[in-house]
Automatic annotation (TrEMBL):
The keyword ATP-binding does not apply. It is found in: Cell membrane. Pfam families: OATP. GO terms for cellular component: basolateral plasma membrane. This is Solute carrier organic anion transporter family member. NCBIfam families: oat. Residues 61-665 form the Major facilitator superfamily (MFS) profile domain. It is a multi-pass membrane protein. InterPro entries: Kazal_dom, MFS_dom, MFS_trans_sf, OATP. It comes from Strongylocentrotus purpuratus.
Length: 688
């Protein structure tokens, strides 16, 4: 009830409250009781004196940044890291996981405009607080399927007895496979229904996330001076990135823990086993409770901090001349109307959208975010997978490396962008130039995607069994294992160390003996068997010499420095080139366009490119599953092409935004930020 009461008050008096309060302060007048109500920290009538020590810009930044940290930890780190485990545990396809992620993006798009519009006119801390609570509930709901299913059965009933070659058992093997499909069909169907619960959790998260992203940035920007802007927003962005990175690292640790925590007696399994499922749910539970707890102190902040009105009165106006400012750079008063309030609100939104649409700098800046978001978000989601396949590391190791690699480049890039902004006192043209510089560096550094380790040679997949005799036939079945009735349902690679050749499984290597220590003997597909020389193979693919991983991680950090060096000015360009009362909607529309044209199709396009390089698919009961092996070289070239196209488009849109920028004060003024007096921009003219 308290929330809706505050909301009604703001809708009646919100359009004139800030202007009148700023005017009173500038004229030396005081408004003691209204100011105490608006700017004191607390809830309803409970506003103790000791609580006011936290009513400052620094504590506000700490609270909202912590919420952003936890949100990105959940939605980026934990979600992206849990994809493989969820697929295995609940028998879901990658397409199903993609649907779940798309549900989140669509929900954000639908909810972000009303949330940012009404929240921008209302009590922003209350909206952010409720958003944190909703995200926490969604996180707990996402982990719920783990607690409502039976314990995970890691091994099949037959264990590993079909791993080796069993001669003359083709018919019995085929019958067993059919029976297994019939027996497990019902249980697979029941598990796959949990996609509904996962989707519902992402719908709730998509409703709770927008207040933190858009309203949080606007509230911080309103509460700080222009001089503080760079470092405060840099800190906010850094905390979000830090949360994402910590999410990857913690997820990598949790994935080394068995999904049910304790293993059944007699089970021996490790994260390197193909069917391993880690404790993917643990991070969602912990983070869910933490962000719910954070929602309480955030909700205690006032609608405005004590110094906000004075800061607003002293800030220069840098919005484009086509923004929705009135004469003198002031927010125009809305005409009185007898229309219902909902109709008035819709008209208000449409009026703001009209001003944004005719603001070329804003439109072109938003366009620049689309290819950038498409590329960055896709790489962020699939980077652990790329490390795993291109540099031959385990899934948990790739996840931890991703988290560690993200921190240095993103933190340094964010603070570098903020430092340059503060040092050079950049206005909109200077900010655009800084963004162009960062995007250019990113374009060059992204060529590191061409790095990859040599392709693993697997008989029947990447090389022929008799390649030494000039054969080029790629088929898992060869004369040396044709009588073994080998199943291709599971990928259990083994390595013949003498030749450096890997086989799809011990059975495909023709091995008839299992020494139960990770080695197999009597392998008929070994070249030595033709001379009567016994041979053994060991579990796992043969390793190939490759020292490119450190260089790749270093170059990815350069990419991250460039990305985040551009991210700080990008946010400031959007905030500064529009009128103050349009900022929340401007950020919201930027997010809508970026998500609609970038975040949603990006992972789908990225996944399609990766799938197009697949050399061997999993097929179970006639259905295609995940890809077991990719063409490293083809994958590198295709991803490099995508990165070049996206980065060139980003630089082009930034250049056009700079070309068409005209400050509201003088349409003919120089685009050089140092030629535009700080106190004159957008204050002397208004074209309507």
């Amino acid at each position: 009830m308290s929330f809706y009461h505050d909301f009604s008050f703001i809708q009646m008096e919100g359009p004139t409250l800030n202007t009148s309060l700023a005017s009173n302060i500038s004229n030396g007048q005081t408004t003691s009781r209204p100011k105490e109500i608006v700017t004191s920290c607390g809830w309803c009538d409970w506003r103790p004196r000791w609580l006011q020590r936290f009513n400052s810009q620094r504590w506000l930044l700490a609270a909202i940044s912590s919420a952003a940290c936890m949100t990105l930890m959940i939605e980026d780190g934990f979600t992206n890291s849990a994809i493989t485990s969820i697929e295995r545990r609940f028998q879901l396809r990658s397409q199903d996981i993609g649907t779940i992620l798309s549900i989140y993006e669509f929900t954000v798009i639908i909810s972000i405009i009303p949330v940012t519009y009404f929240g921008g006119r209302g009590n922003k801390p209350r909206w952010i607080s409720i958003g944190c609570f909703v995200v926490g509930v969604a996180s707990l709901l996402f982990a719920l399927p783990h607690f409502t299913t039976e314990r995970y059965a890691y091994f099949s009933e037959k264990g590993n007895e079909q791993a080796t070659c069993h001669l003359h058992e083709a018919n019995s093997s085929s019958t067993s496979s059919v029976d297994s499909c019939r027996r497990n069909g019902k249980s697979i169907s029941l598990l796959s229904r949990y996609i509904i619960l996962f989707g519902a959790a992402k719908v709730i998260a998509g409703i709770g996330a927008p207040p933190q992203g858009s309203l949080g940035v606007v509230f911080i920007d309103e509460s700080i001076t222009t001089k503080q802007n760079g470092m405060y927003l840099s800190t906010y962005l850094t905390m979000g990135t830090f949360g994402s990175a910590i999410g990857y690292i913690l997820a990598g640790i949790f994935l080394n823990i068995y999904t049910d925590i304790d293993m059944p007696p007699g089970m021996t399994a490790s994260p390197s086993d193909p069917g391993w499922v880690g404790a993917w749910w643990l991070g969602f539970v912990i983070a869910g409770f933490v962000i719910i707890a954070l929602s309480i102190p955030i909700g205690l902040f006032p609608r405005e901090l004590p110094k906000t009105a004075r800061i607003r009165a002293e800030k220069p106006v840098e919005s484009h001349k086509n923004s929705g400012l009135g004469e003198g750079g002031q927010t125009p008063r809305q005409p009185q109307s007898e229309a219902p309030r909902l109709v008035q609100e819709i008209r208000g939104v449409l009026e703001i959208l009209k001003h944004l649409a005719i603001n070329p700098t804003y439109v072109l800046t938003v366009c620049s975010t689309v290819p950038d978001v498409l590329l960055i978000n896709s790489f962020a989601a699939f980077l652990p997978k790329l490390l795993e396949n291109q540099f031959m590391v385990t899934s948990s190791t790739a996840t931890i490396i991703t988290g560690i690699a993200v921190i240095p480049g993103s933190v340094f890039g964010t603070f570098l962008g903020g430092w340059v902004m503060r040092r050079r006192k950049l206005k909109v043209p200077g900010l655009i130039k800084l963004a162009i510089l960062g995007s250019t560096i990113e374009t060059i550094a992204f060529l590191c995607v061409l790095m990859h380790c040599p392709q693993t040679q697997i008989a029947g997949v990447t090389t022929a069994y008799d390649s030494g005799n000039g054969s080029t036939l790629l088929n898992l079945t060869s004369s040396c294992n044709i009588a073994c009735s080998c199943s291709a349902d599971k990928f259990k690679p083994v390595c013949l160390e003498e030749s450096g050749l890997s086989f799809f499984s011990p059975c495909h290597a023709g091995c008839s003996q299992d020494f139960e220590n990770g080695t197999y003997g009597g392998c008929s597909c070994s070249p030595g068997m033709s001379f009567g020389i016994p041979s053994t193979v060991r579990h796992g693919k043969c390793s190939t010499p490759c020292n490119l991983q450190p260089a790749f991680i270093f170059m990815m950090n350069v990419v991250l420095v460039a990305i985040f060096m551009s991210k700080v000015p990008l946010m400031n360009i959007v905030l500064r080139c529009v009128a103050e009362h349009e900022r929340a909607v401007a950020l919201g529309m930027n997010s809508v366009v970026a998500r609609t044209l970038g975040s949603i199709p990006g992972p789908i396009l990225f996944g399609a490119i990766i799938d197009s390089t697949c050399l061997r698919w999993q097929e179970t009961c006639g259905e295609r599953g995940a890809c077991w092996l990719y063409n490293n070289k083809s994958l590198s070239w295709k991803l490099t092409t995508l990165s070049l196209v996206c980065n060139v488009l980003t630089v082009l849109f930034y250049a056009l935004a700079l070309r068409f920028y005209e400050p509201a004060s003088q349409g003919e003024s120089s685009t050089d930020n140092r030629d535009v007096p700080e106190t004159e921009t957008c204050l002397n003219e208004r074209n309507t």
